[in-house]
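Build the 3D complex.
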Amino acid sequence: MDFKTTYDGYVRIVEAALGTYFDDTAEIAEPLKSAMGYSLFSGGKRLRPVLALSANALLGGDANEALPVACALEMIHTYSLIHDDLPAMDDDDLRRGRPTNHKVFGEGMAVLAGDGLLSYAFEIMLGNALKYPDNAQGHLLAIRQVASGAGVFGMVGGQCMDLYCQDGGEADGKVLEFIHRNKTGAMIVSSLLSGLYLCSPDETQSGAVRAYGSDVGLAFQITDDILDVVGDAKKLGKHTGSDARAKKLTYPALYGLDAARKKVDELVGSARAHISCFGEKAAFLTELAAVLGRRES
Amino acid sequence: MDFKTTYDGYVRIVEAALGTYFDDTAEIAEPLKSAMGYSLFSGGKRLRPVLALSANALLGGDANEALPVACALEMIHTYSLIHDDLPAMDDDDLRRGRPTNHKVFGEGMAVLAGDGLLSYAFEIMLGNALKYPDNAQGHLLAIRQVASGAGVFGMVGGQCMDLYCQDGGEADGKVLEFIHRNKTGAMIVSSLLSGLYLCSPDETQSGAVRAYGSDVGLAFQITDDILDVVGDAKKLGKHTGSDARAKKLTYPALYGLDAARKKVDELVGSARAHISCFGEKAAFLTELAAVLGRRES
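Done.
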């Protein structure tokens, strides 16, 4: 397995599939369609779709069956970025090297673009599920997992706490971990599990993937925090130092850069150990954990 | 069948079920939980849940099986009101006689409360579906219908066009009908169909209910427009005249009040005719169409 070839291969099929949901046959009202597409096709890493497809491959799943779920995950991720960037939230004007959605389409349309992407994601997953009546339970489990990772017990819950702290609410290490585990971690776990659930995993398998995702998710968010301190704004495509300016609670701010880096290494090691039970099949996800731990953007 | 007793009975079981999703066992982060609950429990008509439950009853469905779907519809309706009221959208400060969500919890939290309600709605419907493996296809059809009614080809699409027109985009009777059919109508149709789909309807039955919903939905929205001109602000719990102030395209503005009232009567008559095929079972929905046509709030 060549890691880069595999990753790029996943990204290619995801990009192609995402395109079909926004082609000329998709009669979405303008300027909503443009606003949704602007943020969705702005060169993201497509990490969540890759996680779903590679977890699906762990048990030899059918990539075509998992692909709409993978696309939906990217739509949900994009919706969360659009809403997070709003003036009433993080108030960011730059994302992936381009003006943020509300800067281009206005705040009202940016809210709707996010709402639209979230709804469309479910519509796509449910339409796909209807094509596989013999695996209806697998699809229901997968889509429910996505909804719960994205929702009030996951991403939205984490974002709520993040916003609450920015607005002056009390925060400590426990709150920080809650934010990280929920705001980013929950969707990373859900991406993996949604791909896996399509293959009827047993409890040991889903437990292992859940634990892997939990560690990778936390490592990913701590790395995000570190990059906001020491990262290259050009490579990142967004301003750095924004956490410090917003006096945001972060891992490096709370424990220092060195401890933050050490924590990432530990989490990467632990994540890799969790999925060793899948043997050779886990080679890609094992390498992915390491790559995410040393990413620069 | 006593109409009022039946309607109130539906509302009672919906209120009780909605409450369970926000009781002490629901560990939703604060102030998110309060913000979601503030708007959800503010005395709405619960029309969409009633539509789902009464359509489900048309074919003798199990109300317990349909109830989580009914609750999810009310959550989605509430999310749409919270986002519509935002300053960047309709900029309303009064709803159901109380300050709007963002006036109480701030704009950021109001965005999240909407996002949270939408996600929670899907989580609830999917969790419910998993309890009925023998009716997985029925649930998938129902939830997909909700997603599509709420999404870019439905409610969000209609709201986009509404916002676009308010911002000075060109509008005519065709655009107005698009807005009405999508912004309000699509969710009314989807509420009915989602309840019906749980009972494996044949095509004639789903076609009849779809046509009924389409007529009732348009009548409902035209009545809304009429009430914004001639309604009693106290009964409505919101300011009147806001459409005229916002120079909003409405049915009375475009065709006059008399023509608007006549159109409502026609639509109510046609809606009732569509479901006559269900005989006695359709008594409640037949009466409901008439009641909605002459409502004062």
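Strands of chain A lie at 94-95, 98-99.
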